[in-house]
Design brief:
With about 270 residues, chain A is α/β, with parallel strands linked by helices. Chain A contains eleven helices and twelve strands. Chain A has a six-stranded mixed sheet with strand order 7-8-9-4-10-11, with helices on both faces. A four-stranded antiparallel sheet of chain A has the order 3-2-5-6. In chain A, strands 1-12 form a two-stranded antiparallel sheet. Chain B has a domain of about 80 residues. The radius of gyration of chain B is 19 Å and the shape is globular. Classes of the chains: A alpha/beta (about 270), B mainly alpha (about 260).
Chain lengths: ~270, ~260
């Protein structure tokens, strides 16, 4: 079930990405609606991170194109923000929490310009939003996993972008941080921002997101959460993995999806 | 350590520039070494990305190979030119005061390397001051830098060009070994002493200066090699910081530290 929307914020057309001539994403064709919280879900190695990286043109595509806000990427870079996986950087790097959050302002500053007071204020406000204002001068190597994640989030917030791509922001964080982050994401959605999140936990996925993309090298589904998180589509995504399948079964029983009745709509492509 | 690799790999560039021009003018040497520096980084990238060799293996194979070519070139032409292996490896810092910059009218401006190194120093300081935030960001989180439109490739090659330039300018006076000792030693020591990036840059310079002064008097007292003595001091400084650093030292805090 791949639902295409009119007037999308993100349009991915026939995207294929390969590593070392081996394709990891095949012919992905999707559109995302504005002002939504989008979850990208699939098993390990399904190409979830690859998809969002390719959406931001951080990886070269073998074929296809991506348009954001109906423009080529180069023209909308400043409206895009990215929260990489926490493990992707060296947290022993000599920098303070504030230094890292201030990086969020670099893109708008341009070459040769130093951060001004307005930039520092924006960075401080972003830290307040994630509840880390007391940690501004803390060395980043002294942070817990959840705090590191909040710092990365604050950096993206300081940028004040219109669309945010986040790679596993809930991975390995404490429950307090997880709650804080999802609250923040909902506030951002209310402000009309679009947030695309790579996520691995099926249980929370149906609760968190209002649009879900199911991925397993190929695009399995893309649509409103309730229409996409069905047993059939999840089985198709996680195909053959028994442990995962039984988890999916439990999940479906627990949550009692009203999904099957509402599945067929006019512009559904199966 | 790409910087380490470059400092060795520029050797053939220096030798070829010397053979072509037949003089020890700084300008052709800097151009030759600068070119080799960029070729080195490109080769490392190439081996790593397209031959799928580990990054450290790619660095290792590239710089030993280029350095070896440089050594062969020197030994083959050793009889004809006044550039020898000892000079290249250990430098001739004691001869710096003898190599004066004298204009045609006979006016002396003092040691020539003082001027070339001074010029390169200003250039490097200018580069770091203007590109500070880009260098800081691309060093810490290249993926994020690329996402917000700061080219990691451009800044990487600019940085490597600055490293090549610094290396070749220092080469003549201090030799390959001391260049490597200075590229790695003082920053590693500073890393153990502070958690602030700007302070780390300033500490590196200060630590380097202290090593030079102490090393010089050590060599004078021992009547030994100046470069050797200075490199020894940088090693000692690191050992002291490793044990006694207030934040990272073994003595004060049993904390695992990693030095990149």
């Amino acid at each position: 079930m791949i639902l295409q929307v009119d007037d999308p914020v993100v349009e991915v057309h026939d995207l294929t990405v390969s590593y070392d001539r081996k394709p990891v994403l095949w012919g992905v064709d999707l559109t995302l609606p504005a002002g939504s919280l989008v979850g990208v879900i699939g098993p390990n190695g399904a190409g979830k991170s690859t998809l969002i990286k390719a959406m931001m043109d951080l990886l070269p595509a073998s074929s296809g194109y991506v348009r954001i806000f109906n423009e080529p990427l180069k023209q909308v870079r400043k409206r895009i923000s990215y929260v990489p996986q926490r493990e992707s950087v060296d947290w022993d790097f000599p920098a303070s929490v504030f230094d890292v959050v201030l990086m969020g302002r670099y893109g708008n500053l341009g070459l040769f310009k130093r951060p001004r007071k307005a930039d520092k204020d924006a960075a401080m406000q972003a830290l307040e939003k994630v509840g880390m204002q007391g940690f501004a001068d803390r060395q980043i190597s002294q942070l817990s996993g959840g705090q590191q994640q909040r710092v990365f989030l604050a950096r993206a917030l300081a940028q004040n972008a219109d669309i945010y791509f986040m790679d596993e922001p809930f991975a390995g964080v404490d429950i307090a941080t997880e709650t804080a982050i999802i609250e923040l994401l909902r506030t951002m959605r209310e402000q009309g921002k679009t947030v695309v999140v790579v996520h691995h936990d099926l249980q929370s996925a149906s609760e968190y997101f209002d649009w879900v993309v199911l991925l397993n090298m190929r695009l399995v589904a893309s649509g409103p959460t309730q229409q996409v998180m069905t047993q059939e589509l999840l089985e198709h995504t996680y195909g053959g993995k028994l442990t995962v399948l039984s988890k999916v079964g439990d999940l479906l029983r627990k949550q009692e999806f009203p999904a099957r009745e509402t599945r067929r709509q006019n512009n559904v492509i199966l | 350590m790409v910087g380490d690799a470059i400092s060795h790999a520029v050797l053939p560039g220096i030798v070829i520039a010397f053979l072509l021009t037949g003089s020890r003018d700084s300008l052709p040497m800097i151009i030759g070494a600068g070119l080799l520096g960029v070729i080195t980084t490109l080769l490392i990238e190439f081996f790593h990305r397209y031959a799928r060799v580990q990054a450290d293996a790619a660095i290792g194979i590239t710089f030993t190979w280029l350095f070896a070519i440089g050594i062969i070139l020197i030994s083959v032409f050793a009889g004809q030119i006044d550039l020898d292996q000892d000079c290249v490896l250990y430098g001739e810092i004691a001869y710096v005061p003898l190599d004066l910059w004298i204009t045609e009218s006979g006016l002396s401006f003092g040691p020539r390397t003082l001027w070339t190194l001074g010029f390169v120093t200003l250039l490097v300081i200018g580069f770091i001051v203007t590109g500070y935030k880009e260098l800081f960001l691309t060093a810490f989180d290249p993926a994020y830098a690329a996402a917000i439109g700061i080219s990691t490739t451009v800044w990487y090659y600019l940085l490597m060009t600055a490293v090549s330039l610094t290396t070749v300018a220092s080469f003549e006076s201090v030799g390959a070994i001391l260049v490597v000792a200075f590229l790695v030693g003082p920053p590693a020591t500073a890393y153990l002493l502070t958690d602030n990036f700007k302070t780390m840059l300033l500490f590196s310079v200060g630590i380097g200066i202290v090593a030079v002064v102490i090393g010089y008097y050590l060599a004078y007292w021992l009547d030994g090699s100046i470069a050797g003595a200075v490199a020894t001091i940088t090693g000692l400084q690191f050992a002291l910081a490793f044990v006694f650093s207030p934040t990272h030292g073994l003595y004060f805090k049993r904390r695992r530290t990693q030095v990149a």
